[in-house]
Amino acid sequence: MAHRKRTLSGIKPTGVPHLGNFLGMIKPALALQETHEAFYFIADYHALTTVRNPQEMREQTYDLVATFAALKMDFERHTFFRQSDVPQVTELTWILSCVTPMGLLERAHAYKDAHAKGQEINQGLFAYPVLMASDILIYDSHEVPVGRDQKQHLEMTRDIAQRFNHLFGATFIVPEARIEEQVATIPGTDGRKMSKSYRNELPLFSTEKELRNAVMRIVTDSKSVEDAKDPDTCNVFQIFRQFSSPQQQKEWAVRYRAGGMGYGEIKQATFEAINAEIGPFRDAFFQIRDNPKKMEEILAAGAAKARRIAQEVLNRARHRVGFMARNGDS
Ligand code: ADP
Ligand code: TRP
User: Fold this and answer.
1) Does domain 205-287 have CATH number 1.10.240.10?
2) What is the pLDDT of residue 330?
3) Which DSSP string do the residues of 270-288 spell out, in sequence order?
4) How many Cα atoms occupy the beta-carbon half-sphere of 81 within 13 Å?
5) Which of 8, 12, 14, 25 to mutate to test ligand 1, by most ligand atoms within 8 A of the CB atom?
6) Using CA atoms, how far apart are residues 310 and 277, in angstroms rounded to an integer?
7) Which residue, 36, 50, 42, 56, is CA-closest to 11?
8) CB 256, CB 237: distance < 8 Å
9) What is the residue extent of each domain of the chain?
10) DSSP H helical ranges for the chain
11) What are the angstrom distances between the C-alpha of 106 and each of 101, 135, 171, 214, 298?
12) Has residue 325 got a pLDDT over 90?
């Protein structure tokens, strides 16, 4: 396995994972388990830029453990962990901070958006991309599967790695983003990007009834059943497309354009298609989600594996800047 390329990604425990997370990140990341050595983690240090309730932090962390477990991440062969169990990453963040230009961080979309909206911005939010660079570089990652909204963060990681390598000598692998082009950005029930922050999500794991209700809430135009409709601009169709074969998509597109099809029908078909894909994993999700002891065991085993690598790479960086190597336990 040592010769395999390493893939790494993280997801914040900021709410129940949704189908945008699933299609944009979780599913492609899990598929890479076949060909890569995978490091996937729960980005709780990042979540702390916004989450203010410790109970929520714990519960939402468990939602993600149960999600990856139910979807069959192989915890033996690969590494799944909680970011804050590897504090080495915060030390590397400091080292990287000292080579990161302010101007780079000032250009970050997340910061600029928050600033434009007049939101209160903490230093953690401003420094978010440096912590993310540290996450990626500390595991010698080659590829980072993420949704399109993370593209800029990956570019910043590459910039920071190159700058450090230039100043101190070859130290870090310069990683590549891996973005599924046909998934790109999944719309939510209101047509905007599906996001926990807009409360427009279709839940990945919920009861069948909740999933169906959420699909029925997807906003459509007000055309009547008889009217011809346009699949390319329909929010429901964009989601249907992700869960159906090209043949099925062709058939439904014909029905859209012919008129005589109501949105209720394609919503029902979309619900069934989603349910056919994720339904088989639902029981496993709820079963593991009910077992905190098991989830903590999974996290502890992952953290031990992650810390070993992180300490090694951190020592490489410490040595480069003129610090002494440390053994992580002392
Ligand atoms: P959210 O925007 O709901 O807070 P996160 O920022 O936690 O989601 O995203 C976790 C992962 O899921 C990232 O890789 C992100 O790119 C991906 N992702 C989030 N929303 C979508 C979406 N609507 N379409 C595609 N990928 C998405
Ligand atoms: N910023 C990512 C998001 O909002 C989460 C994340 C944190 C991440 N560290 C990472 C993703 C490292 C990939 C690699 O979705």
Assistant:
1) yes
2) 47
3) HHHHHHHHHHHHHHHHHHH
4) 25
5) 25
6) 35
7) 42
8) yes
9) 6-185+291-321, 205-287
10) 19-21, 27-31, 44-47, 54-70, 88-97, 102-106, 109-116, 123-126, 128-137, 151-168, 208-216, 235-242, 246-258, 263-289, 292-321
11) 9, 20, 26, 37, 37
12) no
Q: Answer yes or no: are the C-beta atoms of 326 and 318 closer than 8 Å.
A: yes
- Per-residue model confidence as pLDDT tens digits over 278-301: 999 999 999 999 999 999 999 999
- At 203-233, the pLDDT tens digits run 999 999 999 999 999 999 999 999 999 999 9
∠ CA 147-81-51, rounded to 5°: 65
Q: Which CATH code fits 6-185+291-321?
A: 3.40.50.620
Backbone dihedral region for residue 38 (phi beyond 0: left; psi -120 to 50: alpha; all else: beta): beta
- Contacts of residue 256, Cβ cutoff 8 Å, sequence gap at least 6: 228, 229, 230, 231, 234, 237, 266
For ligand 2, atom 15, which residue shows the shortest CA distance?
11
pTM over 0.90: yes
Task: Give the tens place of pLDDT for each residue, 230-268.
Answer: 999 999 999 999 999 999 999 999 999 999 999 999 999
Ligand number nearest to the C-alpha of 46 = 2
Specify the 3-state DSSP secondary structure of 18. Answer: strand
The ligand whose atoms approach the alpha carbon of 10 most closely is 2
Which amino acids bring their CB within 6 angstroms of ligand 1? 11-12, 14, 20-21, 23-25, 146-147, 149-150, 183, 185-186, 193-197
Q: Are 194 and 188 contacting, i.e. CB atoms less than 8 angstroms apart?
A: yes
8 A C-beta contact, residue 269 and residue 255: no
Q: Which two three-digit tokens encode residue 181?
A: 């082009």
**25: burial class by Cβ within 10 Å (0-12, 13-18, 19+)?**
buried
Task: Indicate if the pLDDT at residue 150 is higher than 50.
Answer: yes
Helix (H, G, I), strand (E, B) or coil at 256: helix
